[in-house]
Amino acid sequence: MRHLQALAPMGLVLLAVTACTPSEEIDVTRELEAVNVIDEHNLNELMLNSADPEEAVAYFTRAVAEKPDRIDLKRGLAAALIRNNSVNPAVTAWRNVVAMDAASHADRVEYAGALIRAGEWETAKAQLDAIPPTYETFQRYRLEAIVADSEKDWRAADSFYEIAVGLTTRPAGVLNNWGFSKLSRGDFRGAEKLFNDALGYDPDLFTAKNNLVLARGAQRNYALPPVRVTQTERAQLLHTLALSAIKQGDIATGRGLLRDAIDTHPQYFEAAVRALRTLDSEA
């Protein structure tokens, strides 16, 4: 009896299917296809975010070959190539994306980003200029700032960096880039402030710590800043300060900082040892 009760719902399902009209059967097929698309979307996201970069490139390469009209798969391939540091193939992949009718402003921004990685500054600028000013995103203005930096258009760069900072809840990276821009112009105090701001959002961002030390060293301030560091990071920052001091002719200070770096590092600090030996041999 229990078996009959369990089979009853299955019988109803079979009866419903056999009673479907042709149009209803098509609807069922479409629903099944929709489920497959959802599953595929989840797989695409997984491959982009979690898979090994080379595996992701292989996956999307096969997918694009099988379904060349799918712009989402072409986007996936382009993004996977960027993640795999395959810059020139990524430029080609994003160019293929923006050539499609369904391409968006976001695609053009990503294409510009790939062009910047490849050093194709003029083409990147042209792509960004082709995007209407009403399209305002963090990524767009971050790239606009980088392009302005490359042209030494400091006023435009500062404006774009400021807008980009206001368009994200995680501005540490762009604040670090902005600080490096100030550093390259010789505005060491302005750079120091921006690196400190970056570390306020992300205290573990080592590039900002190292850049902060460079900005302080350029002002002949050879004391480590009051930031959270590991023992290894402390040694690396002392090494950076030492090189900054030596570059500015403060040899004795540089020698002392190198010794501190060697003593601080929990392992053998080859770069600092080599720099100290070179300094002593020249003396």
TrEMBL record:
Keywords: TPR repeat. TPR repeats lie at residues 172-205. The keyword Cell membrane does not apply. The keyword Mitochondrion does not apply. This is Tetratricopeptide region. It comes from Dinoroseobacter shibae (strain DSM 16493 / NCIMB 14021 / DFL 12). The lineage of its organism: Bacteria, Pseudomonadati, Pseudomonadota, Alphaproteobacteria, Rhodobacterales.
